[in-house]
């Protein structure tokens, strides 16, 4: 098992949260208020700022991160967590496309196998 570089992870997550907040165009006070509503726990703009500041050691809880991702419509925040593990997040449409591709690949293999069996059977019938 490889060690977790917690400082690098913390900085990457804080950077991803800051970027998602900037890209959302939403006011930080509103973001904090909506996270508070979703989590049913108080959250101020200063708390949000501390969670996204690289110089602060405050870490966001999973519950607040999930709420923040929802408020910002930013599922890419989950990517910041999973990237080191070689995992990726697929949204519903992407997941369905991936499932369809996997099934089409399986169907192709089955069709090929059936064709081989038919050739073998036809060869035996001709003898």
Question: What do these coordinates show?
Answer:
The chain has helices at 6-24, 28-39, 45-52, 62-72, 76-82, 92-125. It has 127 residues and is mostly helical. The protein has two domains: 1-89, Orthogonal Bundle (434 Repressor (Amino-terminal Domain)); 90-127. Helix 1 (6-24) packs antiparallel against helix 5, helix 2 (28-39) crosses helix 3 (45-52) and helix 2 packs across helix 4 (62-72). 15% of the residues are buried. The model has no long low-confidence stretch (mean pLDDT 89).
Topology:
Layout: H1 6-24, H2 28-39, H3 45-52, H4 62-72, H5 76-82, H6 92-125
Helix pairs in contact: 1-5, 2-3, 2-4
Shape: elongated
Order of secondary-structure elements: HHHHHH
> Tally the helices: what do you get?
6
CATH homologous superfamily classification of the largest domain: lambda repressor-like DNA-binding domains
Sequence stretches where pLDDT stays below 50 over 5 or more residues: none
Amino-to-carboxy terminus distance = 59 Å
CATH architectural category of the largest domain: Orthogonal Bundle
Give the helix/strand class.
mainly alpha
For the sheet with most strands, the description reads:
none
Give Rg in angstroms. 24 Å
Roughly how much helix do the residues carry, as a percent range? over 70%
The tally of domains stands at 2
CATH class of the largest domain: Mainly Alpha
CATH fold-level topology of the largest domain: 434 Repressor (Amino-terminal Domain)
Percent of residues in β-strands: under 5%
Strand tally, please?
0
Mean pLDDT: 89
């Amino acid at each position: 098992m490889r060690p977790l570089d917690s400082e690098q992870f913390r900085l990457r997550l804080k950077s991803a949260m800051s970027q998602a907040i900037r890209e959302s165009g939403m006011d930080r006070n509103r973001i904090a208020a909506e996270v508070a509503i979703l989590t049913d726990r108080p959250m101020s703009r200063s708390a949000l700022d501390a969670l996204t500041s690289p110089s602060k050691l405050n870490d966001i809880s999973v519950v607040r991160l999930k709420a923040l991702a929802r408020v910002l419509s930013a599922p890419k925040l989950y990517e910041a967590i999973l990237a080191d593990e070689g995992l990726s997040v697929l949204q519903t449409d992407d997941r369905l496309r991936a499932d369809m591709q996997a099934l089409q690949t399986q169907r192709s293999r089955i069709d090929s196998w059936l064709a081989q069996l038919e050739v073998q059977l036809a060869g035996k019938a001709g003898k």
